[in-house]
């Protein structure tokens, strides 16, 4: 196998990797509860997808003593 004759500089390596940055996920608003959700997924807050109730979300009520 061929081996490089000289070492590549760190700047040259970093130029090559300049497009390797993580991207923010695309978010949309849920039409039912207006929370930010990932598109084409069931809303984790209200449990709806495309206007239909898919999941039953249990409410988190705190019990008072």
Strand content: 5-15%
| Total number of beta strands | 4
Task: Tell me, rounded to a whole number, the average pLDDT.
Answer: 88
Query: Fraction of residues in helices?
Result: 10-25%
What composes the largest sheet?
A: 2 strands, antiparallel
The H/E string reads HEEEE
The first-to-last residue Cα distance is 73 Å
User: What is the topology, as strand order, of the major beta sheet?
Assistant: 1-2
**Which residue ranges are poorly predicted, with pLDDT under 50 across at least 5 consecutive positions?**
none
Q: By helix and strand content, what is the structural category? A: alpha+beta
Radius of gyration: 24 Å
The outline comes out as rod-shaped
Q: How does the SSE layout of this entry go?
A:
Elements (H helix, E strand, L loop, with lengths): L9 H7 L11 E2 L6 E2 L10 E2 L2 E2 L12
Antiparallel strand pairs: 1-2, 3-4
Summarize the structure in words.
- Helix content is 11%, strand content 12%.
- With 65 residues, it is of the alpha+beta class.
- It has a domain at 25-57.
- The strands form two sheets. A two-stranded antiparallel sheet has the order 1-2.
- It is rod-shaped.
């Amino acid at each position: 196998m061929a081996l490089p004759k000289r070492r590549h500089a760190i700047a040259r390596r970093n130029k090559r990797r300049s497009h390797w940055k993580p991207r923010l996920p695309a978010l949309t608003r849920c039409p039912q509860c207006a929370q930010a959700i990932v598109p084409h997924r069931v809303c984790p807050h209200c449990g709806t997808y495309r206007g239909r109730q898919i999941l039953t979300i249990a409410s988190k009520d705190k019990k008072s003593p």
